[in-house]
Design goal:
By secondary structure, the chain is an alpha/beta fold. About 20% of the residues lie in helices and about 25% in strands. The strands form 2 sheets. A 6-stranded antiparallel beta sheet has the order 4-3-6-1-2-5. It starts with 7 loop residues before the first strand and ends in a 10-residue tail after the last strand.
């Protein structure tokens, strides 16, 4: 299906609260054909939502958090206290509501090839990593998905991550601040920060590395990867905060 230009009306057909902070919206475009343009793992759509006063919100970009299927788009939105749009989406957008979206876009995508991949997601930065892991599993491509988050209270997509863990995809869940009720080996695999030493011990040196997450997390990942021998050619990342250069 040919990609449309600009914003189009779309309907929220399903809403799933992944945890207390993240909600997933399943979206279908309202047109006669009932089809959606395909997209690459890692791409995003821009979203505007009707506010209480009848106006449309500012445009915000959200990564598509499931692989292309031709039936619906899924975005997963973290409620940010300072984020007008994310708060409104989390608090007010329900099944049956109309929102406005663009066709998928973005250059942060899984590169073609057979090279092993390491996918590192911090917090809500797991969304592009998850879709890339799904694509790698489908392609039978060796990959390691690493998800860093505080604890079970912040956990999202556990069932999908568990289904990925298998012959081609290795998964590691890292809790930085486990709750007293969290159990290593059951709820998570590693405790603490993703240090240079941990990365050096646990990821393939011949892999392509992709990562996304909060700015401090990304700065640390970038420097750690350089220090253990990865070149810029084998490092890819996406910023959720525009105008920040993590290389500095």
């Amino acid at each position: 299906m040919e990609r449309w230009k600009g914003f189009r009306e779309a309907k929220v057909v399903k809403r799933v609260e992944e945890n207390k902070y993240i909600v997933s919206l399943y979206i279908k475009v309202m047109d006669e054909e009932g089809e959606l343009p395909d997209y690459l793992p890692g791409q995003f759509i821009a979203v505007k939502v009707p506010m209480d006063d009848g106006t449309l919100s500012k445009s915000r970009q959200y990564t598509l958090s499931s692989i292309s299927n031709g039936e619906y788009y899924r975005i997963s939105v973290k409620r940010e206290e300072e984020g007008q749009v994310s708060k409104f989406v989390f608090d007010h957008v329900k099944e049956g509501n109309t929102i406005h979206i663009t066709a998928p876009a973005g250059k942060f995508v899984l590169k073609e090839g057979n090279k092993p991949v390491v996918l590192i997601g911090g917090g809500i930065g797991i969304t592009p990593m998850l879709t890339m892991a799904m694509a790698a599993e489908k392609e039978k491509r060796s990959s390691h998905l690493i998800y860093s988050l505080p604890n079970t209270e912040f956990m999202a997509f556990r069932d999908e991550i568990n289904k990925l863990s298998g012959a081609h995809v290795n998964t590691t869940i890292v809790y930085t601040r486990p709750l007293e009720t969290d159990v290593m080996g059951k709820d998570y695999d590693e405790k603490g920060r993703l240090t240079k030493e941990w990365l050096e011990r646990n990821i393939q040196k011949d892999a392509e590395v992709y990562f996304c997450g909060p700015v401090p997390f990304m700065k640390a990942m970038y420097q750690n990867l350089l220090q253990i021998g990865f070149s810029d050619d084998n490092i890819s990342f996406e910023m959720f905060v525009p105008g920040v250069d993590i290389r500095k």
